[in-house]
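Thread: "does anyone have the structure for this chain?"

Original post by V.I.:
We have the sequence but no experimental structure in hand. Need at least a predicted one for the grant figures.
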Amino acid sequence: MPAPGVTVDGVWKAFAAPDRADTLRDALGGIGRGWARWRRGSPGEEGPAVGGGDGVRWALRDLSFEVGAGEALALIGPNGAGKSTALRLLAGILPPTRGRIEVRGRVGALIEIAAAFHGDLSGRDNVYLQGAIMGMRRAEIARSFDAIFAFADLEEFVDAPVKHYSTGMSARLAFSIAAHLEPDVLLIDELLTVGDAVFQQRAFARLQDLVRQRGTPTVVVSHQLDRLAALCSRALVLDRGRTLRVGTPAECIAAYVGRTGTGWSSAHQTASEGAPLRLAALCAEGSAVVASGAWLRLRLEAHAARIPDPAWMLVIRVRSSATGEAVFTTTTARCGIRLEQSGRLQLAVELQMNVPAGLYLVETEARDFLQQRSLGAGPWLAITVDEGANFIGSIQMNPRIAVLGS
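Reply from O.Q.:
Generated one for you, tokens below.
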């Protein structure tokens, strides 16, 4: 029997676009656009021809990836990027329009919770129903039955109809079923936020156990980027159905946040070779993993095409990958540094990472202070901050405690 895993090879997915005309003007416009496409010999949208060609919206375009034992792949992207469509294809809910999908093994899918349960059946009956759908024998389900309801904190509601469950109760039960019925492949769509904070921590620890200890191949979609960075070994960035980047979670999260993060605008473009002040390189001295409250030491290299204008400055910005928000910004001007020479410039930068554990992006930019314009964005680094030995919370206050005697 082949090892459990997922293979997606050149997959396209098309949906019919709405083509109903509400007015005569809309109808005539549609006829005109169709005639123009016919004259150009174009099917309307890029992609392999399907059906008549016109009125097609491509949700996925030439998607390919593989996930094997012990791997967790994060699908990252904005709403409408095609992430949930990809999971529905993997779960067999939707068929691909073109390409090949192979899912080897029994699938545990946390997708469309409301559709997963029969409302008139009890929690007990739904557990056996979901296990049967996964291809499990009744005896196999019975062995995990008590653990499923204990994990979901629903022992008192075993025999209550699921239609009387709250949304949170249904979500907890769905997660517990998928996590305890020993799936060969796990698919998760936006469910790292189920339940309260205590259950979220328990659920995340269970996912880590399934991926790292049991080696369950996993594909997960979530906007909790810090959770994805901690759970997944690889990531893929989607935008309008196209693959923009494949790599480590840190690389892909940085690419995604840099594209959509708060505070970025069209002016934030990488500086060209001819820019008057260009940031060339950024690196960490030592490890890119630091404890909360510890010092991060960086080396920044820039190049000035001529003697810098007194208004020019370099900006260092630290952004949370979890929220996309800039949590700290400083500049050479704020630190009392003036850029006074042309050619190659090297700067040593030290930042005390007084932030909670998580994934952060250190971004650089050259700016003209007087004209309030960007001279070009520079390189960035993904930095992992671990829990500090003396700190748990949202702000590091560098505590010092001394015993003064009796």
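V.I.: this helps a lot. Residues 24-40 form the longest helix (17 residues).
O.Q.: and The domain at 5-21+46-255 is CATH 3.40.50.300 (Rossmann fold).
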